[in-house]
Give the backbone structure.
Amino acid sequence: MAARKPTDKTLGESLRERGVSRRGFLKFCAATASMMALPPSMAPAIAAALEKAKRPSVIWLSFQECTGCTESLTRSHAPTVEDLILDVISLDYHHTLQAAAGDAAEHAREQAMAANPGEYLVIVDGSIPGPDANPGFSTVAGHSNYAMLMETVENAAAVIAVGSCATFGGLPAANPNPTGAMSVMDLVKNKPVINVSGCPPIPMVITGVIAHYLTFGRLPELDAYNRPMAFFGQSIHDRCYRRPFYDKGLFAKTFDDEGARLGWCLYELGCKGPTTYNACATMRWNDGTSWPVEAGHPCLGCSEPKFWDAGGFYNAVSVPTSASGMNVLAAGAAGVVLGGAVAALAKKQTKAAVAHRQPVTVEELEAKL
Amino acid sequence: MSGSMEFLLWTKGPMFDIAIAIFAIGLLVRITEIFMLGRKKNFAEARAGEWGPGFRTMFTRTVADPGTFQRAPFNVVVGWVWHIGFLMALLLFLPHIALIESLTGLSWPALPNPVISLVTSVTLVALIATLVHRMTHPVKRRISTVEDYLVWAVVFAVVLTGWLAYYRLVNPYPLVLGMHILSAEIMLILLPFTKLTHIFTTFIARWYNGAAFGRKGVQS
């Protein structure tokens, strides 16, 4: 990608240059407002803010990841990824999407950092082998992931961690975590970190967070895991269209029974909707076509920490992650043996007491008084 | 344990293993000891069998005799209400059945959730009534020990957190679900070492009573 100075032009100017109509622009603003759960009256405010906003330089770092998050991003439909890259932001560095390769690519990153100190956004997908791990576990252009992350965030305005690997460590950090993988918020302490979790996250959530940052110039309201409340404020269960079946006690027992065909609740089939916070139930996937539960599969809970280690995907939320009936039986058997020993000891002590009993006469007692 | 989900996973994983192991070992120690110590050998000639009256008494004692009811109607009625409510919530709520099935392979049909939530609400009110009664009744107050209040608090915490979790009144949900599981685990741990053991020993004691009466040839 050619080096340029993205902060020169406002967003409004660049949109007009590209022939975007006022009407089209306002439509985009209204979509953004509704996506962020803001009242429609906010649309003109968003328009005014975006009109004046400078296109920020964005550096996208990919570490221990599967590119699923980028695949998801490229399927964003409101705003589309083309809108995002060409109109809204200046994506100066992204392994998968950039045309440049090798030294030229690394040069683009360094140039973007030098040109916009304190102003550029860093987006990270993938987890990072921690400072104590072997730096060779994952490298880009000869730099360890850890070194590249720390160097890049040093002068960033904010960091957006995209996907469950970047937000919580994800699959690389799953037990036994062979690469010592850590999340972005484990490592970056002196910059604001926004977490957009999910495996992958919903595309509009990625673009929506960026749009929010541009519109208001500050981070959105975040939950305890630094996730934007607008998208992660409600659980899947609370917004699930199958919730009435849960309340009525109507559950699919297998994937092909009558209940499954009638669209009953998937709790017994392992749905993690009750403990999962994400916007799948309301925003849905593939341009609003459907989402996992609608397709008949339980929620895996992919936007929550440690979801790979949270027990079987097809076990109900109430099922313990490790204990088995055999362990309980073994503990019970140990209890029987121990109880037998305690009882035998008590009997022995009683027998010994009887054998060694020394009767006391009334005279002896009186003599002691 | 940096967040609510980590807390929930701790209660569902390592803490559950610890609690269920202490429960199983402790309970079996107590029950094995009771059976092995047994009773002193009775050299008198038996007038009738022990088994029939023993088993009959296990069930007949469930209903209080009229005299007991007249003396302590509150104890009988409220005691019944909350015990039945607790058992229904424990054994007929789908997530609980899924947990039991994962450990034992046994399962049975669940009641609809609104029924369970109503039963749980009634149980909560009844439990509060038992506490008020214990603290205001002159005799009960004097014979109550720290253990009585501890056991009440643990049972109440289990029901209350379950009720809060069902209605999702605490945010984030993994926190309240973890609190519910943890309080149930505390109850499991305390069960073999407090009067909660009566869940299992009541029926053994009743059998011994009934068997003793049967042997003597008196009404059991």
Notes: The mean pLDDT of chain A is 87. Chain A touches chain B through 50 residues (CB under 8 Å).
